[in-house]
Design brief:
This protein is α+β, with helices and mostly antiparallel strands and 198 residues long. It has helices spanning 21-40, 91-104, 146-155, 168-174, and strands at 9-16, 45-47, 51-53, 65-73, 119-125, 130-131, 136-137, 185-186.
């Protein structure tokens, strides 16, 4: 994916650390792809490998997360003016679908950054720039989280992130590493998730 193509894509961050996170993400993957195709006519979805990551924020003692990301091609002409037109739901409609999938897999929102059965974050959505109570695009912490940047860099290290200078690989390398927090661990490929460690 060329660095210039971020405005022609959408990206979703995926994570889980309760129940059986691997089973959850394996079950989620085809459902999420189906929803993106049905809602947006989205083209090929490119998935990252799975990563094991340390929790960030929230209550102490949480289990590690499994995280991944997907980048999906938007239909041709799906610029800002197209959202809301037939075949191009607005980002809020897409957010509603992501929240419905979270609930389907048992997500209950009790505390900020608390453990969860499934977390789906809309990271960007084509050229859209939004600042609403329930949705900000690009995601306001997109550039701060190794558990987001590492999967995106695995998809395309040269990807230019919306609203940021430099490639995703450079942004990831520049992140400070908190003491005692292991970096994201790229996991090997497995049945149902063919992307894996090189």
């Amino acid at each position: 994916m060329s660095a210039s193509l971020a405005d022609q894509t959408l990206a979703i961050g995926v994570g889980a650390n309760l129940g059986d996170p691997l089973a959850t993400l394996l079950a989620l993957r085809p459902l999420l792809e189906q929803r993106l195709v049905a809602l947006l006519g989205a083209g090929r979805c490119r998935w990252s490998p799975l990563f094991r990551t340390a929790p960030v924020g929230g209550p102490p003692g949480q289990p590690a997360y499994l995280n991944a990301a997907l980048v999906g091609a938007l239909p041709e002409g799906a610029g800002a003016a197209a959202w809301g037109a037939p075949g191009h739901p607005d980002p809020q409609a897409l957010l509603a679908e992501l929240l419905a999938l979270e609930r389907r897999f048992g997500r209950v929102r009790r505390e900020r950054w608390g453990p969860r059965h499934l977390d789906l974050d809309l990271l960007w959505c084509g050229p859209q720039r939004l600042r609403l109570a329930e949705l900000e695009l690009p995601h306001p912490r997109l550039l701060e989280r190794a558990f987001v940047l590492a999967p995106l860099a695995a998809i395309d290290p040269q990807l230019q992130l919306p609203g940021a200078a430099g490639t995703v690989a450079k942004r990831l390398a520049a992140l400070p590493t908190p003491a005692g927090v292991p970096p994201p661990e790229r996991l090997p490929a497995r049945a149902g998730w063919p992307e894996g460690s090189p």
